[in-house]
Amino acid sequence: FMNKVDLVDDEELIELVEMEIRELLSEYDFPGDDIPIVGGSALAALEGRDDEIGKEAILKLMEAVDASIPQPEREID
User: Fold this and answer.
1) Which of 3, 13, 14, 25 allows an S-S link to 32, with CB 3.0 to 4.6 Å?
2) For the stretch 42-58, what's the b/e string if a residue is b when 16 or more beta carbons lie within 10 angstroms of its beta carbon?
3) Cα–Cα distance between 45 and 53 in angstroms, integer?
4) What average pLDDT does this structure show over 6-32?
5) Does residue 76 sit within a domain?
């Protein structure tokens, strides 16, 4: 989750930061190009303002988590 996007007015700067995050992930042998990065504002979500970068971003983050992390097999007694 790339937080605090509400503090940046320039969309190109947000894209640049995302590219740098992906490069760092790749540098440390993570699949930087394949990992979903969701931009938003946790504070906006908590305060209930600017739904696009607040609530909707958190929902999108949870969708990415559900899609990327497999559900573990659990023993059933």
Assistant:
1) 25
2) bebbeeeebeebbbebb
3) 8
4) 95
5) no
Closest CA to 40 of 66, 72, 67, 64: 64
In total, how many domains does the chain have? 1
Domain span holding position 13: 5-67
* Lookup: tokens for 12: 């190109």
Phi, psi (5° rounding) for residue 2?
Answer: -95, 105
Q: Whole-prediction pTM value?
A: 0.80
Structure-token pair, residue 19: 């590219």
DSSP calls for 40-66: --HHHHHHT--TTTTHHHHHHHHHHHH
